[in-house]
Amino acid sequence: MSSPDSVVFLESYYEPMAANLARTRLEAAGIPCFLSNENLVSLMPLYSPITGGVRLHVRQRDVDAALEILQDVPVPLATGPDVDSFAADAPDPVAPRCPRCGSSDVAYGPATRNTYGFWSGLLSVLLRFPLRGKRFHCFHCGHEFK
Questions:
Q1: CA 58 to each of CA 2, 67, 89, 100, 105: distance values in angstroms, whole numbers, following the listed order
Q2: Residue 58: in which H helix or E strand, if any?
């Protein structure tokens, strides 16, 4: 059993700006919190999925209040979806929730996991360049889905 003063992981964010907005909202409500992986993700954004993004931590006793504050008004993304940049085969530009964990920190793009079929695998070997399909990627739990 954990003590009320132990520090727990609350939420993960793909962009440092969104994580700082959440941290600021919690601190304004009097809930002490801190971020981890912020500098790493700021310097090397491609490492965000590997490291779990920018992670927000609070004390165990403040978890319920913090979740209530963050769910009342959702923290806006640092950038909204650019509808013009979506490919013709891309799904609706409004990012869905992850079916595994329910997080809304989801993006659509090239798959990070193996999505090769026979022909795309063969072409990838011949061209020496990985050809991967596009999928939604959850930055909270790492799940990929169509």
A1: 13, 10, 40, 23, 19
A2: strand 54-59
How many domains would you assign to the chain? 2
Which three-class secondary structure state does DSSP give residue 128?
coil
Q: Average per-residue pLDDT in the chain? A: 76
On whether residue 117 sits in a domain, the answer given is yes
Q: Evaluate whether residue 2 is within a structural domain.
A: no
**pTM listed for this prediction:** 0.50
List the structure tokens of 2.
């954990």
Predicted confidence at residue 66, as pLDDT, reads 94
Q: Convert the pLDDT of each residue in 64-92 to its tens digit.
A: 999 999 887 555 544 455 555 445 555 45
Note down the domain range covering 57.
7-72
Measure the CA angle with vertex 145, ends 140 and 146; round to 5°: 140
What's residue 47's pLDDT?
A: 80
DSSP 70-109: HHHSPPPPSS---GGGS-TT---SS----TTT--S-EEEE
77 within domain boundaries: no
Round to whole Å and give the CA distance between 49 and 56: 15
